[in-house]
Give the backbone structure.
Amino acid sequence: MRVRGAGALRAAAAALTLAALGDTLWHGVRDPGTALCFGILITLGELARRDSGDSSEPRGSRDLPGARDAHAPHGPGGHPRAGDRHPAPLGSAGALAYALLGQSAGAPTHHGVLQTVAVVVAAALAGIAVHVARGRGPVLDHVARRVLTVGFAAACFQPLYNSGRLEQLVGQGPYLVLFLLLLLGLTALCDAVLAAALVGLRTGWPYGPLLRDELRALPGAGSAICATGVVMSLGVAVAGLWALPVLSVPLLLTQMSFRRIDAVRTTYRQTITSLARATEIAGYTRPGHARRVAGLSCAVGRELGLSERELTVLEYAALMHDIGQLSLVDPVPAGATAALPAAEARRIAALGGEVARQTGVPAEVAVVVERQADPYRDQPVLARIVRTANAYDDLVGGDRHPGGSLAALERLRLGTARDHHPEVVECLARVLRRSASRRDGACLERPERDARGRGGRARVVPGRPG
């Protein structure tokens, strides 16, 4: 059902694109100079996009069971941070400005909804082609969102303006500006709904928290894009196409600021990850344990509906949850603190909290680390999640439960009287079940090769992960 929903959105975007390109090729390009200038702006915006790939690709899922340990969670809960949601802000602003353009230097324009979509798609694909050639192409969701969002804005503005009804209703004064701002607010809401829906359909995460995070990110880059789109359309209406390069400078500066902020966040997270690996390098914990616990914790936190800020704190705490073992003279066998007596586990957790405070992490992270071994009724929600995720990885990583994940989950359920919160355990079970269904239900088409090494007809191999 989730795959069908995502496919339906992509199919709708593809159908709109084909209709727009067909109509434009049949009737020709109206106002070709204006279309060319905006197309160049959108292409340059795509060329200047972030190199991190498409923002709609879930990234934390790489650390769920079955993923390779070499990958670490790139964002809390696998969801993109606010600065990553708009990798090409200049292209987005240019597309919105073209959709809301009614005049150029006082002369009315004649492009409609379908030509708007056609120009935006052609320009975006021209810019994306360079990234695809360099191996950093975005997934289809980015293009689908751009097509549907721009189509929505153009459908709300172009028919009203070209028919003269908009001028009769609001005129050309300040009411027109208010109308454009209101329309851009609805467009931003439409984009947030689409972004949350595509991520939710692909991953199965709860839709409400995803939409809430998208809406919370709107006052950042989203507001800058919308404001620049309005200013561009009004500036071109008065001053002509020469206003485009001038009005692009503020958004370019904003994009550079977001890149600096993201670089600082990336460096900060890499520092915490390096600290977390200290226990692995010293031989106190198994390789990849901290990353696996962080991936599971963020997935469970997303299942519980935590906000993006809470997921960030949860990720940092999960990465550092075993840092207290560095204070031990005799290492815990295999680093499995879940099997220790309660008093010893709390002592190690308290040591970890002290170490975390000395590293300069936020105070909430240290609190989660030092309270992860308390009875769950006395714990904050984040500490409950870390404790359960850590216990699960300890159980499946040792020889105590050869039955694997099912036996480990049963052991966790037996501990819901004191050690593990029942809701957290059930959320963990859903995360594992969903991860297993995606992994084991996949079918790979692998070419059969003959003795001479030439590829043959594809053979479907069911139930085998790649």
